[in-house]
Amino acid sequence: MVKSVDLSVDIGPKLKLKNPVMNASGTFAYGEEFARFMDLGCLGAVVTKGLSLEPKCGNPTPRVAEAPSGMLNAIGLENVGLERFLEEKLPFLKRYDVPVIVNFFGASETEYARMAGRLDQTVVDALEMNVSCPNVKKGGIQFGRDPYTLASLVKVVRGQTSKPLIVKLSPLTSDIAEMARAAEEYGADALTCINTIPAMAVDEETLRPVLGNITGGLSGPAIKPVALKMVWETARAVKIPVIAAGGIACARDAVQFFLAGARACQIGTQALVEPFCFDPVIAGIEDYLKHHGFERLTDIVGALKV
Ligand SMILES: Cc1cc2nc3c(=O)[nH]c(=O)nc-3n(C[C@H](O)[C@H](O)[C@H](O)COP(=O)(O)O)c2cc1C
Questions:
Q1: What digits encode the pLDDT tens for the residues 245-265?
Q2: What is the distance between the alpha carbons of residues 287 and 38, in angstroms, rounded to a whole number?
Q3: 96: alpha, beta or left, given left = phi > 0 and alpha = psi -120 to 50?
Q4: What domains are there in the chain, each with its CATH number?
Q5: Residue 85 in contact with residue 79, Cβ under 8 Å?
Q6: 133 has a pLDDT exceeding 90
Q7: Whether the predicted pLDDT of 49 surpasses 60
Q8: What is the DSSP letter of 8?
Q9: If you average pLDDT over residues 279-301, what whole number do you get?
Q10: Each residue of 138-171: pLDDT tens digit?
Q11: Does residue 133 have an active-site annotation?
Q12: C-alpha–C-alpha distance, residues 97 and 100, integer Å
């Protein structure tokens, strides 16, 4: 058995993480509530709720529903807006020894570009651009479905920032490799796969949809096999790092994604089920590496035998 292992990973040339585990955007707000349960400094990075230029109040309630092996959400990207985040939330996150990744979106290319330009002037460590939210009419999936639209957006946003730019891809595409290559070619430093999968729930007693928005996004263990396939396809298509999201609930899940080619992972839905899950996942990855004789996390990235 190996005595000590190196869990650090680089996400592009400018973002080094002490370990590969982050929260996923939207299930962790701006970190304050979770700081009561855990040391935020244990994470490889903290990812914020998706931010827009102006505050957003989100979709009508109910916004969440349980599903077999997961959940549905249609929050509608409610957020405090960029300026309030910078003033009120970022100073709190900056108290911890952990890179802060800001997840953001816009309703148009111009809005995305303005977000990136403003974030570039701040102390945030990296940007995660959401082009994949299924629950809003504008600012989500319409930028993430077609490689030409995505390429154009990435190019414009890249021109506004020299900070690490991570593009969060949607599972709603017939060819995720093509989307990944488009983002890489036009300047993305890394990719996150995947966002939620469009879905719905029906209440047979009221004869109504369960969610106020009618449809929502499915997340949690139910989507893990889909996410694994998409991470694997993406990692084979590009040279830039891939960050996995989709149903990761324990260290074994995370390791499976590393083997499929991910360099880091995000935990979303499981953090709502079990807010203390981050420490055990990090420790479990370390144990796995020790027991299997690997000295570095990077030794298992893409090590799947096919
Ligand atoms: C309640 C909720 C809110 C979310 N909000 C965002 C968001 O603001 N921006 C974003 O890029 N993804 C958002 N997501 C998607 C997650 O970040 C993640 O990609 C997805 O849930 C899959 O991971 P999981 O199965 O571990 O939850 C949200 C997911 C949930 C469940």
A1: 999 999 999 999 999 999 999
A2: 20
A3: beta
A4: 9-58+77-199+220-299 (3.20.20.70)
A5: yes
A6: no
A7: yes
A8: -
A9: 98
A10: 556 678 888 999 999 999 999 999 999 999 998 9
A11: yes
A12: 9
Task: Give the Å distances, CA to CA, from 92 to 89, 98, 116.
Answer: 6, 11, 21
The atom of ligand 1 lying closest to the CA of 70 is 25
Q: For a ligand 1 pocket test, name from 21, 27, 105, 193 the mutation site with the most ligand atoms within 8 angstroms of its C-beta.
A: 27
Instruction: Kindly state if the Cβ of 49 falls inside 6 Å of ligand 1.
Output: yes
Report the separation in Å between the CA atom of 219 and the middle of ligand 1, taken as the mean of its atom positions.
7
Active-site residue (options: 133, 193, 265, 277): 133
d(CA 43, CA 267): 11
User: Is any ligand 1 atom within 6 A of the Cβ of residue 50?
Assistant: yes
- The residue with tokens 């488009």 is 182
- Give the model's confidence band at 135: pLDDT under 50 very low, under 70 low, under 90 confident, else very high: low
pLDDT surpassing 90 at residue 67: yes
Indicate which residue's Cα is closest to atom 26 of ligand 1. Answer: 268
Pocket of ligand 1 contains residue 171 by CB under 6 Å: no
Cα 182–Cα 154–Cα 122 angle in degrees, nearest 5? 145
Q: Is the CB of 75 under 6 A from ligand 1?
A: yes
pLDDT digits (tens, 9 = 90+) for 6-23: 999 999 999 999 999 999
Task: Evaluate: CB of 77 within 6 angstroms of ligand 1.
Answer: yes
Please tell me whether the overall predicted TM-score, pTM, comes out greater than 0.90 for this model: yes
Of all helices (H) and strands (E), which one includes residue 84?
A: helix 82-84
Residue 38 CA to residue 93 CA, distance in Å, equals 13
Q: Is the peptide bond before 285 cis (omega within 30 degrees of 0)?
A: no
